[in-house]
Design a protein that fits this description.
By secondary structure, this protein is an alpha+beta fold. It is built from 2 helices and 8 strands. A hairpin with a 5-residue loop joins β4 and β5.
Length: 156
């Protein structure tokens, strides 16, 4: 009897831990302090990334995306601007793209379904562009261009 109780207890603990981890990733969506961190925390049920895209482009199809994922670092020697062109289709959940400036301030570039181009401010130092999801399914295509002298480095 004791041998049956121990495996059942282990399975129960694993289920509680998994649910806790899933909830933590879902809470990231509205927490700018976590989004601004250097490290990322994310999970996907399914992820397809176009490997042929350029350094300044991303094409991603996702399902079950929760958490925060860095796409680029944009290092600027001085204040300037970047132009971000995007097309986002979200069929379920919540999805957004943000800019995190060198001081950790988070600015939303777009949220949900969107198809547009936006000029965003860059600050001296390393700016980061991230995607954030909460149980999201969909696809996003993004292209970024910046002033000369600004380094765009694809992370993902």
């Amino acid at each position: 009897m004791k041998l049956r109780v121990i495996p059942a207890a282990v399975i129960l603990i694993f289920c509680f831990e998994s649910c806790s981890t899933w909830d933590d990733k879902n809470m990231i969506y509205s927490d700018d302090a976590i989004i601004a961190r250097d490290g990322d925390s994310w999970s996907y049920f399914k992820l397809i990334v176009d490997p042929s895209s350029e350094e300044s482009e991303q094409a991603i199809k996702y399902s079950g995306f929760s958490g925060v994922q860095s796409l680029w670092t944009v290092t600027s020697p001085e204040s300037g601007y970047a132009v971000v062109a995007y097309s986002s289709i979200v069929s379920r959940g919540d999805f957004k793209m943000v800019l995190v400036d060198p001081d950790g301030y988070v600015q939303t570039i777009f949220e949900g379904n969107a198809d547009a181009e936006k000029t965003i401010p860059l600050f001296p130092g390393t700016n980061r562009i991230k995607i954030v999801g909460r149980q999201a399914n969909g696809s996003v295509t993004v292209k970024i261009a910046a002033d000369s002298g600004t380094e765009i480095r694809k992370i993902f």
